[in-house]
């Protein structure tokens, strides 16, 4: 009987630790999302390494679901519905309405809109950061796993790593600051690119 009670106690304690860890992991992500989701907007530097999409680095501005990313190869504006992609080499602007799966790779901050549903959490930590591992509860999802590293002091995301179609894409994020951004920053303005050819892919 004592052995049975002891076994039950161990199982209960393991379950409790797992639940507490999952809850604290979500709390970390909630605080991180609040920083990224500042009403006025945020700006940051980023670099991307991807087996599927290649490597890139540049600057990004985010406000809600909107983002504006600039790299040496391309500039993107997304106003929550329409995505404009300007290719500097060809001076072409592709206009599209991207899917959620496409946005997951284009915007490193899109995890803010993803993590609350359909994922289970575990978390490890160092002296300076939390590392949350998210696993999709439905394996048919486009993104099956994510690792989000969060600075302990600022709750800013410093790395977002996601698995899509068996290939990993990693974003390293730095110099995040809150900035008052007008909505116009997230829309392509043809006056700024008078020589660009607009190709509507919608």
UniProtKB/TrEMBL annotation:
Signal sequence bounds: 1-22
Record InterPro entries: LolA/LolB/LppX, OM_lipoprot_carrier_LolA-like
Tagged with keyword Transmembrane: no
Superkingdom as given in the UniProt entry: Bacteria
Keywords attached to this entry: Lipoprotein, Signal
SUPFAM superfamilies: Prokaryotic lipoproteins and lipoprotein localization factors
Stated name of the protein: Outer membrane lipoprotein-sorting protein
Organism: Prevotella communis
Taxon lineage: Bacteria, Pseudomonadati, Bacteroidota, Bacteroidia, Bacteroidales
């Amino acid at each position: 009987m004592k052995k049975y009670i002891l076994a039950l106690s161990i199982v209960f304690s393991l379950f409790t630790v797992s639940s507490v860890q999952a809850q604290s992991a979500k709390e970390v992500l909630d605080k991180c999302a609040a920083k990224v989701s500042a009403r006025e907007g945020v700006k940051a530097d980023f670099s991307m390494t991807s087996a599927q999409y290649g490597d890139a680095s540049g600057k990004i501005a985010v406000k809600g679901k909107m983002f504006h990313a600039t790299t040496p190869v391309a500039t993107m504006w997304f106003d929550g519905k329409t995505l404009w992609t300007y290719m500097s080499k060809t001076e072409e602007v592709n206009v599209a309405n991207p899917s959620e799966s496409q946005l997951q790779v284009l915007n490193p901050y899109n995890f803010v809109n993803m993590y609350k549903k359909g994922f289970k959490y575990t978390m490890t930590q160092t002296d300076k950061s939390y590392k949350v591992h998210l696993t999709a509860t439905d394996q048919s999802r486009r993104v099956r796993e994510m690792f989000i590293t969060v600075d302990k002091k600022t709750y800013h995301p410093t790395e977002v790593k996601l698995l899509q179609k068996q290939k990993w894409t990693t974003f390293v994020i730095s110099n995040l600051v809150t900035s008052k951004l007008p909505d116009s920053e997230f829309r392509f303005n043809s006056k700024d690119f008078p020589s660009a050819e607009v190709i509507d892919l919608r």
